[in-house]
Amino acid sequence: MDPMPEDVRLGQHLTSSGAITPAQLAEALEIQRDLGGKIGRILIKLGYIGEDELLKYLSKQLQIDVVKLSKRKIPPALWRMISENTIRTKKIVPISLANGILTVAMAFPQDLETIEGIKFETGENVVAVLAGEREIDEAIVQFFGPPPASELAMPPELQPDVAPPLEMPAAKEAPAPPPSPTAVKEAMEAAATKEAREGLLRFPTRLKIDALIIALLDSGVLNEEVMGRLIRERAKEA
Asked: Which homologous superfamily is 69-150 in?
């Protein structure tokens, strides 16, 4: 016979002790089937049980000690033993290392897969103890800072499984049409007047650049071959 899942055993324990009603457990299990997540976290989010009360039941069921992270000062070296991504996503806090045993606080220490992952990452034997998820989050923020904005939304077990919207590439602006020969001529004539500086200000930059190029070509400072090479090189960089 397959062993009863931990979440089912916890739910039955909570209902038999009167902490929650069978209807509340049924609602939480339905959400879990649809969206995934831990049954304890779902019950807390639904407001059917408090975190401290849940910790008491988990400690009794799992026979694991509860620690108060707010009363512990964790050395930075312990935090750096585990990647920030693992700490944030798995909600774990390393609290001590002694005699080759790394003790970590977890909201769900029955998560054996996560414990094995920490063993592999650190190369240490790992022992899990129980801590409140709120205290774990506060400890992580205190050391690493607030999570990215994408992590501040509703927790995964209470979110629908919706694919992110597709991001369409921004439309490229059509290039401006080249100025007409008449417009270029007007810009050149304006530069030749006594009020050249003031007159130039009213013309678009594109016209002034074209007028300057024509003047350079006419004066012999640039020739068509050099100008063509410069244009081709610029086109490659664009």
From this structure: Type II secretion system, protein E, N-terminal domain (3.30.300.160)
